[in-house]
Amino acid sequence: MAKIDFGGTVEEVVTRDEFSLDKAREVLKNEVVAVLGYGVQGPAQAMNMRDNGINVIVGQREGTSNWDKAIADGWVPGETLFNVEEATERGTVVQYLLSDAGQRSQWPKIVEHLNEGDMLYFSHGFSIAFKDQTGVIPPPHVDVALVAPKGSGRSVRDNFLEGSGINASFAVHQDATGRAKERTIALGIAIGAGYLFSTTFENEVHSDLTGERGILMGALAGVMEAQYNELRKNGHSPSEAFNETVEELTQSLIRLVGKNGMDWMYANCSTTAQRGALDWKDKFRDATAPVFKDLYQSVITGNEARITLEANSQPDYRAKLEVELAAIRDSEMWRAGAAVRSLRPENWKK
Questions:
Q1: Which of 62, 168, 249, 322 has the maximal Cβ count within 10 Å?
Q2: What is the CA radius of gyration of the chain?
Q3: Predicted model pTM
Q4: What's the average model confidence in pLDDT over 280-292?
Q5: In CATH, which of 3.90.190.20, 3.40.50.300, 1.10.540.10, 1.10.1040.10 is domain 211-347?
Q6: Catalytic residue set
């Protein structure tokens, strides 16, 4: 493992320099990796491992749209595509990539098919960290580990195809075989991780739920709406308000941050932008700090897990979700966004 200084704190990380793909293949050469669930993370991880020469099968309920999607992606019923129970029985590494609510509901069926020496693999710490709510308590005769890519399944696949990979955390919760850590790192390399950093199931889910509800999705969407609405109230057109709120961020500035850091982005903007950003940054930090404190407490107490499981287990969950998503999609701000995106050069008619 390489030692890297992260802002004054030295952490150990695993890169493909220390743990090559060839080594990962050697570690996994006798494994059958069963990917359960073909929704968000499942397709990307399964296809990346297949492309990297790992023996992969998929478990998905027949007759679903995801079963059809798996077939379209080249998985063959009876050969590499099975129902969830049979895939679990065939696998020596069982990647439990159903939704959090799905993991809770399917666990009684899954646990019956875990054999001695198998590995139960997660990409989210939710079910283990909140076991009192999910009932997911692995038997003592299996390894229990986690590799959590820091991005959506689509990003995991796209970055893999571009050759860059995406960073991931890893953790070993239970080592029944004495080989759990080696197997886990090999799986992280096989799914195409850019580098791997160590965590625990609890830390992963606490940071993940905070990030999703916070800066990655919830806070970002909320702050965008607040600025857009203020500009519109003061007579700015939808196009101008959207460009100053979203388009310039996503198409220009955030790319500079991602490539070289916030300080570099500040240094390469106008002096007017620099001064204003520096003056207002701390005000936004201080205004939102109490919200993040409340959010983190809601996460670590299990309140967010309870809300998620209750909502996602309702039979009409997807219908209610579509109503909520439609409200965003049909808002003026995001209708303006659709129009702005259609005017990007790559969408011009040839």
A1: 168
A2: 22
A3: 0.90
A4: 96
A5: 1.10.1040.10
A6: 124
What residue ranges in the chain does DSSP mark as E strands? Answer: 2-6, 9-15, 33-36, 56-59, 81-82, 93-96, 119-122, 143-149, 166-174, 193-198
Gap between the Cα atoms of 13 and 94, Å rounded: 24
Per-residue pLDDT of 166-186, as tens digits, reads 899 999 999 999 999 999 999
Rounded to whole angstroms, the Cα distance separating 126 from 103 reads: 10
- Taking phi first (over 0 means left), then psi (-120 to 50 degrees means alpha), and beta for anything else, what does residue 344 get? beta
Please give the CATH topology (third level) of the domain spanning 2-199.
Answer: Rossmann fold (3.40.50)
Other Cβ atoms closer than 10 A to 68: 13
Beta strands of 37-152 (E only): which ranges?
56-59, 81-82, 93-96, 119-122, 143-149
Do 81 and 75 contact (CB within 8 A), yes or no?
Answer: yes
Q: Name residue 285's amino acid.
A: R
Q: Kindly give, in sequence order, each residue whose CB lies less than 8 Å from that of residue 306, ignoring residues fewer than 6 positions away.
A: 133
Residue 350 has pLDDT above 60, yes or no: no
- Which SS3 state, helix, strand or coil, does residue 137 take? coil
Q: How far apart are CA 331 and CA 334, in angstroms?
A: 6
Q: Is 172:181 a contact under the CB 8 Å cutoff?
A: yes
Residue carrying structure tokens 């001695």: 116
> Does residue 285 carry a pLDDT above 60?
yes
Report the C-alpha gap between 103 and 210 in whole angstroms. Answer: 21
**Mean pLDDT of the region 66-80:** 96
Interval 290-321: pLDDT, tens: 999 999 999 999 999 999 999 988 999 999 99
Angle, CA 214 vertex, CA 210 and CA 220 arms, to 5°: 160
| Pairwise CA distance, residues 171 & 157, whole Å | 22
The residues spanned by each domain of the chain are: 2-199, 211-347
Beta strands in 71-131 (DSSP E): 81-82, 93-96, 119-122
pLDDT digits (tens, 9 = 90+) for 28-69: 999 999 999 999 899 999 999 999 999 999 999 999 999 999
